[in-house]
Design a protein that fits this description.
312 residues, mainly alpha, DNA polymerase, domain 1, hpI Integrase, Chain A, 2 domains, 3-stranded antiparallel beta sheet, two-stranded antiparallel sheet, globular, DNA_brk_join_enz, Integrase_catalytic, Site-specific integrase, DNA integration
């Protein structure tokens, strides 16, 4: 076999290995390795260096973050063909001890409930600008479609199929569908304050979008960009809209608030566990069950009967 053929095979091998890991995971791993090197670590590394790294950040980084960084360092060694210093029982025991001693509750995004979304939609409808039309469509499609922010900003016009009852949106690839089999989500027309289909149509017509990304940036002259929004901008758009609409009781809003809010609101409205899981594209039952249990913290509370009981 020629050197050129061997080189091509190696390139293909690297591409296939890269394709086996999601873009988000690769970015997280690269960031973790950079953090280790900036601290003073070296690659390939050894058990003692990594233990010192863990100890130095045991009280400043969340144990879950530290565990991710160790996984990234471990993967680097495996893919580069070096012995993995992260698999030693001593190192894993130290990491477990850090988790038990320094563990902190996981910070969760607040759920944006349906009634909160309605307040935001009503506010955006009074603004009547191209940006407000985009934000209205973005937040409603994100909420009722249960989309992750990376999925939301990568939606294109070609992914839409309009039906009599609403719109079908095809996700060519998602976090739970890395092989690209495709996931189709149906979003019906609404009859109340919220109608994601109408909001999307109005935005597309007003912005004169005939192809490309559904949601793009808008400059100060009202010109729509040809590229899609950055995933991080979804957080800023949601927080800004919520603040302006007076939805200020939610302390920690992010794009994940749309997915959590959809699951919580749908369950309260009587949707089945199966349908909620399918709309959100969740892989594990436990994730959805967690949202449902949180939705019931007040509705099914052991103290409700005592606190609503009239005094004699």
């Amino acid at each position: 076999m020629s050197r050129v053929a061997i080189g091509v095979r190696r390139e293909l091998q690297s591409e296939f290995i890269a394709a086996a890991t999601s873009d988000n995971t690769r970015r997280a791993y690269r960031s973790a390795v950079r953090h280790f090197l900036n601290w003073g670590g070296h690659l390939p590394s050894d058990q003692g260096t990594i233990i010192n790294y863990l100890i130095d950040f045991s009280e400043t980084l969340n144990p879950r973050t530290l565990s991710l960084k160790i996984t990234a360092i471990s993967q680097w060694h495996k893919h580069q063909g070096f012995n993995d210093p992260c698999v030693s029982p001593q190192l894993r025991k130290i990491l477990l001890g850090i988790e038990r001693k320094c563990g902190r509750p996981k910070q969760k995004a607040s759920a944006l409930l349906h009634e909160d979304l309605e307040k935001i939609v009503l506010f955006l409808q009074t603004v009547n600008s191209l940006k407000s039309l985009r934000d209205n469509a973005l937040l409603q499609i994100g909420f009722f479609g249960g989309f992750r922010r990376s999925e939301l900003v990568n939606l294109k016009l070609e992914n839409l199929k309009w039906e009599r009852d609403g719109v079908l949106i095809l996700l060519p690839k998602s976090k739970t569908d890395q092989t690209g089999a495709g996931i189709s989500k149906a979003i019906p027309y609404g009859k109340g304050v919220c109608c994601p289909c109408a909001a999307l149509k109005k935005w597309l017509d007003s912005a004169e979008i005939s192809d490309g990304y559904l949601f793009s940036g808008i400059n100060k002259w009202g010109q729509v960009a040809n590229t899609g929004l950055n995933a991080a901008s979804v957080n800023a758009i949601l927080s800004d809209c919520a603040e302006q609409a007076g939805v200020d009781h939610l302390l920690k809003l992010s794009s994940h608030s749309l997915r959590r809010g959809m699951a919580t609101s749908a369950y309260r409205a009587g949707a089945s566990f199966r349908d909620i899981k399918r709309q959100g594209g969740w892989r594990f039952d436990g994730t959805v069950q967690g949202y449902i249990e949180e939705a019931d913290q007040f509705a099914e509370n052991a103290m409700s009967g005592l606190l609503t009981k009239s005094s004699p």
